[in-house]
Amino acid sequence: DSDLSMRTLSTPSPALIFPPNSPGFQNGRESSTSSSSVTGETVAMVHSPPPTRLTHPLIRLASKHQKEQANIDRLPDHSMVQIFSFLPTNQLCRCARVCRRWYNLAWDPRLWRTIRLTGETINVDRALKVLTRRLCQDTPNVCLMLETVIVSGCRRLTDRGLYTIAQCCPELRRLEVSGCYNISNEAVFDVVSLCPNLEHLDVSGCSKVTCISLTREASIKLSPLHGKQISIRYLDMTDCFVLEDEGLHTIAAHCTQLTHLYLRRCVRITDEGLRYLMIYCTSIKELSVSDCRFVSDFGMREIAKLESRLRYLSIAHCGRITDVGIRYIAKYCSKLRYLNARGCEGITDHGVEYLAKNCTKLKSLDIGKCPLVSDTGLEFLALNCFNLKRLSLKSCESITGQGLQIVAANCFDLQMLNVQDCDVSVDALRFVKRHCKRCIIEHTNPAFF
What we know:
Helix content is 31%, strand content 12%. By secondary structure, it is of the alpha/beta class. Among the domains are: 75-111, Monooxygenase (Up-down Bundle); 304-309 and 325-448, Leucine-rich repeat, LRR (right-handed beta-alpha superhelix) (Alpha-Beta Horseshoe).
């Protein structure tokens, strides 16, 4: 059809990402349809397009019944492309081997805005090289249609794979390499330097990544605007254990457009790192410093500088945060919608009171494992935060059924309530269920069901 970009059939295509026991291998040997044989690992195979028909003179002509078209072949091209759009990368490659028509449809540019590879055994570096080479066929050395690459959990991804992406995909907007612990700073620097439109970067679990910055060559070339060239808005560095305050300073100085930043379990981050962050990144809406044990009330004072822009904050298990830090947040961040303060044992009913009276639009609150929060704090929540939808009180020793009843009588939109390991009666749980009919209650009371 005229609306489709038909591919040149003489060019080989990466058709499958084969495991060793797939149909492409027979008795430990690769079948005749593939161009190379690699045993013991998963690789991207290269295939030529399927032939239109079998022309050997000894092959008998198909019967009339066999010539009848399959139901799926009756679908128009645009419907087939729509169906293919729901397939992951490896399945889309398989479809390209079915017949000549499917080959052409499977390589429609609209289907290759995203590459998604998963699995610990995949030779990701080779797969990315073969795929990008095929996608660069019409525009030599440049893959203009590819915008998203997701290779999460692929432990065999190395810097070589990221170099391939950086060099071939200038229009890349989203990159997720979570759990790929073999990549280093240098490869990440290349990606952010050569992909100026990159907005979403997930390097969670990449323990070798300690900061995000431009390469030295890019820094020299763009020195007058240095620090404003990285357009990343979403950055997830969860479990990047080696990240320190200096690295966070570099990130903040070069990624000034950040709106979402997740630093869960970055255990070396301190209040000083948060101070650097607030100097440069004033547009942050969502921030997580969960399990950053060195973050204290002084860090909360820095975060409060975000004022009404902050909507999401997670400070779970930050044991140095007390009512003082909560008061800073409550006073200046009035549009806060989500707060996770689980395990902050220094928070009391006074902190909950500050929060409830100033952040009245709060929708989700987790104050589990805060033993100093009691029914008094719940009463402040119930009388001020009518929009509350999710409330976690797990392991709050001072909570009773009376506090729950006050919440249920005022927060009709409550959808989730966690009271596991709390001393609450069955009658109180039934009261909650009657007043909040859509509420899912997580509990440990065997008498309530």
